[in-house]
What we know:
By secondary structure, this protein is α/β, with parallel strands linked by helices. It has eight helices and nine strands. Strand 4 (about 80), helix 4 (about 95-125) and strand 5 (about 125-130) form a beta-alpha-beta unit. Bound molecules: NADP nicotinamide-adenine-dinucleotide phosphate. NADP nicotinamide-adenine-dinucleotide phosphate binds near residues 16 and 87.
Amino acid sequence: MTEKKVLIIGATSGIGYALAVAYARAGCIVGATGRRQEQLEELQAAAPERIFIRRHDVTAADNIAVVEELIYEMGGADIIVYNSGIGIYNKKIDWEPERDTIAVNVSGFAEVATWAYRYFRQRGGGQFVGVSSVASERGGGTAPSYHASKAFMSNFMEGLRQKAFHDKKKIFITDIRPGYVDTPMTKQNKGMFWIASSEKAARQMMAAIEQKKRVAYITRRWALAAWVFRMAPRWLYERF
Length: 240
Ligand SMILES: NC(=O)c1ccc[n+]([C@@H]2O[C@H](COP(=O)([O-])OP(=O)(O)OC[C@H]3O[C@@H](n4cnc5c(N)ncnc54)[C@H](OP(=O)(O)O)[C@@H]3O)[C@@H](O)[C@H]2O)c1
């Protein structure tokens, strides 16, 4: 792989961490963010000369200022990955978990995605990657905002792709839709299947990004599950 500059937002654990390590091992310059400083330092220790870190909360007022600072330090970015995300089981349908999910997965995402689009347009090209989910395909009763937020991300990215076409810019938008990946987020889950390690997910994501795929299911077999979810009639899906 030619040396690329890759910014990964939400790289302190799970998929983002594995992706940061994989890109650094491939010889890329990597920018990594997240709220947990200790994890950022641990990640940086894997390749101090290639990994740049910044403490970053995507729900804070300085969301974009931090992104700008880090990209400046990296000497630019060819690929920006928005991987930050939360998903909280909310059986009681309390408001707080829904509000927090929207703040990270919707507002934080949209703020970064719009900034990234303008950054790449001004720069003459680039690639924006959003880590959505198979959950984007349909609603979900245990975490309604999680499913809805991922649908928002995927729909938003389709819009940016259309915009790039009309702007005649080489801006590639890659919508990553993982199924189950073994990470701190899924520790709470029961009844999971087709579970991939973070490392395997990162490998397949890198390949999809390199191929500039529009949409990629991780792992690939999740494309089949996504199709089944999409096709299921409403009356049946409700009982699932
Ligand atoms: N694991 C799966 O099965 C699965 C399936 C489909 C989609 N996904 C998606 O994959 C992405 C990564 O999830 P994961 O499974 O790897 O979980 P994870 O290990 O919990 O990672 C989540 C990442 O999001 C960051 N984050 C959360 N809140 C943030 C905030 N306010 N500001 C900045 N960063 C924040 C976390 O960093 P800090 O806590 O340090 O801030 C962490 O780096 C998420 O978008 C998730 O929805 C995961």
